Amino acid sequence: MSETELEDGLNAAHARFDRALMRLDQSVKNLGTRLRQHNRIEVDTQRLVHERARLATELDKTAARAKRLDDSAHDVSRRLVEAMETVREVLAKAE
Fold first, then answer.
1. DSSP per residue over 60-89, as a string?
2. Residues contacting 9, CB < 8 A, separation 6+
3. Residue 25 has what pLDDT?
4. What is the pLDDT of residue 34?
5. How far apart are CA 13 and CA 7, in angstroms?
6. Mapping DSSP to helix (H, G, I), strand (E, B) and coil, where does residue 2 land?
7. Which residues contact 48 (CB under 8 A, 6 or more apart)?
């Protein structure tokens, strides 16, 4: 192998090595970007999990309050019916 061929081979190998290093550098940068995005998504996910838990608790409290109000409304309705029946009985006796 001549000195020129050896030098050409080394130059070609050096060029391939430089391209490989550039690809590796770009891959590392891309990985860093993806890791930062992943961390942001992780933080957002945790925030959403906490928000969901808070909203679930609030919903449970609101549902319990709605049931108490519904029970109270039913009780008031029952008492009104009893009162109207009592008034009717009194009026019927008065006639």
1. HHHHHHHHHHHHHHHHHHHHHHHHHHHHHH
2. 1
3. 97
4. 97
5. 10
6. coil
7. none
What's at 92, amino acid-wise?
A: A
pLDDT of residue 53: 98
Note the pLDDT of residue 50: 98
* Span between the terminal Cα atoms of the chain, in Å: 134
DSSP state of 47: H
**Which residue has 């009194």 as its token pair?**
90
Give the integer Cα–Cα distance in Å for 26 and 28: 5
pTM for the predicted model, two decimal places: 0.58
Using alpha carbons, list the distances in angstroms from residue 37 to 27, 34, 49: 15, 5, 18
Two tokens, residue 7? 């030098």
Give mean pLDDT in consecutive 10-residue pieces for the chain, a chain of 95 residues: 87 96 97 97 98 98 98 97 96 87
Could you give the CA distance from residue 77 to residue 60 in angstroms, rounded to a whole number? 25
